[in-house]
Amino acid sequence: MSETSSSSSTRLSVFKTYKLYVGGKFPRSESGRVYEVSDSKGKWLANAPLSSRKDARDAVVAARKAFGGWSGATAYNRGQILYRVAEMLEGRREQFVREVADAEGLSKSKAGAVVDAAIDRWVWYAGWTDKIAQIVGGANPVAGPYFNLSTPEPTGVVTVVAPQESSFLGLVSVIAPVIATGNTAVVIASEKAPLPALSLGEVLATSDLPGGVVNILSGKAAEMGPHLAAHQDVNAIDLAGADSVLATELEIAAADNLKRVLRPGAADWSADPGTHRMTAFLETKTVWHPTGSLGASGSAY
Amino acid sequence: MPTNAPAALADATASDAALRRFLHGLPGIDPVGLEARAASLGTRSIKTTAKAYAIDLAISMIDLTTLEGADTPGKVRALAAKAVHPDPLDRTTPATAAVCVYPDMVATAKEALKGSDVKVASVATAFPAGRAALPVKLADVRDAVAAGADEIDMVIDRGAFLAGHYLKVYEEIAAVKAECGDKARLKVIFETGELSTYDNIRRASWLGMMGGADFIKTSTGKVAVNATPPNTLVLLEAVRDYRAQTGVQVGVKPAGGIRSTKDAIKFLVLVNETVGEDWLDNHWFRFGASSLLNDLLMQRQKLATGRYSGPDYVTVD
Amino acid sequence: MASAFEYAPAPESRSVVDIAPSYGLFIDGEFVDAADGKVFKTVSPSSEEVLSEVAQAGEADVDRAVKAARKAFEKWSALPGSERAKYLFRIARIIQERSRELAVLETLDNGKPIKETRDADLPLVAAHFFYYAGWADKLDHAGYGPNPKPLGVAGQVIPWNFPLLMLAWKIAPALATGNTVVLKPAETTPLTALFFADICRQAGLPKGVVNILTGYGDAGAALVEHPDVNKVAFTGSTAVGKKIARHVAGTDKKVTLELGGKGANIVFDDAPIDQAVEGIVNGIFFNQGQVCCAGSRLLVQESIQDELLDSLKRRLSTLRLGDPLDKNTDIGAINSAEQLARITALAETGEAEGAERWSPECELPSAGYWFAPTLFTNVTQAHTIARDEIFGPVLSVLSFRTPDEAVAKANNSQYGLSAGIWTEKGSRILAVANKLRAGVVWANTFNKFDPTSPFGGYKESGFGREGGRHGLEGYLDV
């Protein structure tokens, strides 16, 4: 943030100290480290926390703790909260436009379009929370006297390596589908452009989203990623923002407890998101129960 | 009122409420699982020596039955003769366990069976509907016992059972048992087809045993659904559990609808693998049947000769 | 159980199946020798009799088979779905026609009772082909968008516990979606897959669409790692599953894994006890417990534990162990000497760790690989036999006090494949089912399978689903 408008006033602007968002709180990195974040032209914007593996560990603990409540919340309730995120963002639109413009070197109007798309993405996923089960689950007509129902369930704690370039729309596009279905997330923000992500934490904290559902870390994916990919209490990993070398390394580490892995793919974050980012982190549970006849009538020999 | 429940279960019959609590506290039955178990035992393949054993055992367990409005002394005598020597061509064929007739035919049957070990069983208590006043039912029983019946097959009051008046059903069974005294063994018929659910059949089984039944029996043979492997399996589980809890052994009699050797063997497999050999004896297991006997005899002839038999080689009654 | 009513032997006839003295690999529609000429023997686990000698695939054979599948892919994937469907319907029908032969063959090669191959394996195999046959021309309606595309060549590695059924689970959806297949059956049970090759021939399936490579783990690894394989489907151990997950890292290969389990079978005090006992028996003794979704941990509410164990022990005493071809056999042979050694060692660990071991009186045949039905009581979460998959007829009995505790114990496992719930209380079924982290939950039943019903695990039990509409996803580029 730079000083501005010195012509009309000599007032110094108040800098913002960017902090992590973990377990609903805003801690500094336990390591005490920060790194410089610059805009696309190399101008200093702020210091961001340089998270450590211990921060990642704490984030997993918070995400696990939040999982029971969030996955157990009604889909309607989750939808209300995701929509609330959109409402909160709309109110802070100007801030995010500025941050995105700085982060991605976009013009105001292009940054505005990105922020609008990100807000709309929350609305899109808010609407999905109570529909995805009807799309991917259902009754199965088994050949026997049984009721058989398949339902999708969140896989658990998901590590998200957020896109490096698309610091906000890309970020929202990977977080929202993870939590819409009831997972909780540990997010490694874009390394070079983490500020929109850290600000998003502030929005999430005021959107009725329970603490720990989304945890946002800034720093190096290459530093934290391997610990999160190998973490035995993490159930899945989205490699959206990992380069091919890191993605391969993390996928290998993820095999230790057979995490669900969403590999990096071609990224057009403005395209129709479809459902695959949701289904990638859903389990299918199939429950059987006998039906049988009403009474002990004529069972054949 | 007499009480026949063993000491371990005496509290259960203290009141209608207590009896309801007890019967509704019995483990539930999942119909699909029950039927699957019965069907799975029905796939046992009983061949050669095992089949020969099973056929003779089944013959010896039959309560050869005639319960027609048109029954005559001649018909009953013919049936008695067949019970004693089911296969006139083969005197090694075992006799049936009993003949089963209406009370007014007991004396005839008794006379015809004199000198044999074949018992006379009589249906009583306003069989098959059971819709008569208790004194009438008891008189019916008294008559049959006085005429020499060795066994009484009573029907429970299904109306009372379905209305939840368990104590009434219990007391009626106990009263009939008192009429039987030590002269006749009591078989209690539930008419399982009218009780409809397997849970009801389990409750009725316990009610019957607590009331003093020597045998519990599925059905009268007079309604649409009579003995089936699953409902008989429920009865077998009940006598097994009752003995484990009280030490008292009670017999089981599926009746109605069992017509072929194949069916009969399935029931014997159920007995063998549910309650074991303690029940593989006509003191503890019976078939209420009539046409079953001829099929058993034809199968027996096939095993003996290697040829398939035909209906002209067994007797019509 | 000794009884006056002794069942005479009732063996199914072996004469319905004609096993050749040797078999080749099935590549590009022909039976061929392995490139290096290697062979191995397959034995009947119930007698140790050698049934046949089959070719042992090596890396060169894998390459040849993948090339054949690649070549066949172009035409096969371009066929109208309705035509692919008809091939699969043909296969389903031929399996039905030859089901007695295949059941006997499976029993001979695997050691499982004929009762199971006849009444469970074979009917499910045919049903699976029927089910997926119908999908072949309806993929536009499967919920994966318009005109979903196949992946290409599927490399499939299957286990020995349900040889033909696992083949069906792999091949039917792969072909329906337009992929071609290279499948490696387990080394101890190669025969039904080779007979399936003959069924493909009878059905007139184009050459190279299905290729069968008999062989060992090295052939499986070579198949999984082959660069021209687009899809890997594996059913087997979690250890191998993890290896595969590492191998495919950084590639475009799509993977589905069906791995181990340690299913909790939870019995509440209001359960339908007699059916629960049957469900417990079915859960752990079906196929000698060599089932990934076996209910190998019995969690019983403490208040009914003694009563339930009495019933269970009485029931176990009626199990008939012996000749798998006898129609009255309930418990057949363990599949291999190696597996028997593994089960034996884990059972010994159970004893060494202080659990109480019980088996019914049970005479084991002198030849072959056998293990008596076994029950361990006084087991806690800390015992090895409560955590490790035994894959044998060994049940660990644990107790719980409250529904919360039951769920916590059930979920306290690296696995998450199956679970059972026994209670007459409907709301409890739904509440517990909701909390269990397992892919298949059987309430008041156990070990039921159906082609329409998705099957697969949470956590280290693998990922992806087989069966149902869900089973298509693993074979489509979506």
Q: Could you give the order of strands across the largest sheet of chain A?
A: 7-6-5-8-9
CATH architecture of chain A: 3-Layer(aba) Sandwich
Going by helix content, strand content and strand pairing, the class of chain A is alpha/beta
DSSP summary: helix tally of chain B: 13
- The tally of strands of chain A reads 10
The CATH superfamily of chain A is known as Aldehyde Dehydrogenase, Chain A, domain 1
Helix-strand pattern of chain B = HHHEHEHEHEHHEHHEHEHEH
Q: How far apart are the termini of chain A?
A: 83 Å
Proper CATH architecture of chain B: Alpha-Beta Barrel
Rounded to an integer in angstroms, the radius of gyration calculated over CA atoms of chain A is 22 Å
Q: What is CATH's topology name of chain B?
A: TIM Barrel
- Straight-line distance between termini of chain B: 43 Å
**Which fold name fills CATH's third level, the topology of chain A?**
Aldehyde Dehydrogenase, Chain A, domain 1
What summary fits the major beta sheet of chain A? 5 strands, parallel
> Could you say how many structural domains of chain A there are in total?
1
Low-pLDDT sequence parts of chain A: none
C-alpha Rg of chain B (nearest Å):
19 Å
CATH superfamily of chain B: Aldolase class I
- Identify the quaternary structure here: heterotrimer
Describe the structure concisely for a colleague.
The complex is a heterotrimer of chains A (301), B (317) and C (478). Chain A has 301 residues and is α/β, with parallel strands linked by helices.
Written description of the protein model:
The complex is a heterotrimer of chains A (about 300), B (about 325) and C (about 475). Chain A has about 300 residues and is an alpha/beta fold. Chain A has one domain: Aldehyde Dehydrogenase, Chain A, domain 1. Chain A is built from ten helices and ten strands. In chain A, the strands form three sheets. Chain A has a five-stranded parallel beta sheet with strand order 7-6-5-8-9, sandwiched between helices. Chain A has a three-stranded antiparallel beta sheet with strand order 3-4-10. In chain A, strands 1-2 form a two-stranded antiparallel ribbon. In chain A, α3 packs across α4 (about 110-130), α4 runs parallel beside α6 and α8 runs parallel beside α9 (about 245-255). The mean pLDDT of chain A is about 95. With about 325 residues, chain B is α/β, with parallel strands linked by helices. Chain B has a single domain (about 5-310), classed as TIM Barrel (Alpha-Beta Barrel). Chain B has 13 helices and eight strands. Chain B has helices at about 15-25, 30-40, 50-60, 75-85, 105-110, 135-145, 160, 165-180, 190-195, 200-210, 230-245, 260-275, 290-305; strands spanning about 60-65, 100, 120-125, 150-155, 185-190, 215, 250-255, 285-290. Chain B has an eight-stranded parallel beta sheet with strand order 7-6-5-4-3-2-1-8. In chain B, α11 links the parallel β6 and β7. The mean pLDDT of chain B is about 95. In chain C, α1 (about 60-80) packs across α7. A seven-stranded mixed beta sheet of chain C has the order 13-14-15-12-11-17-18, with helices on both faces. Chain C has helices at about 60-80, 80-95, 100-110, 115-135, 165-175, 190-200, 215-225, 240-245, 275-285, 305-315, 335-350, 385, 405-410, 425-435, 470-475; strands at about 20-25, 25, 30, 40-45, 50-55, 155, 180-185, 210, 230-235, 255-260, 265, 295-300, 355-360, 375, 395-400, 415, 420, 440-445, 460, 460-465. Chain C has two domains: about 15-260 and about 460-475, Aldehyde Dehydrogenase, Chain A, domain 1; about 265-445, 3-Layer(aba) Sandwich (Aldehyde Dehydrogenase, Chain A, domain 2), CATH 3.40.309. In chain C, β14 (about 375), α12 (about 385) and β15 form a beta-alpha-beta unit. Chain C is an alpha/beta fold and about 475 residues long. The N and C termini of chain C lie far apart (about 55 Å). Helices cover about 40% and strands about 15% of the residues of chain C. The mean pLDDT of chain C is about 95. The chains are: A alpha/beta (about 300), B alpha/beta (about 325), C alpha/beta (about 475). At the A-C interface, β4, α9 and β10 of A face α8, β18, β19 and β20 of C.
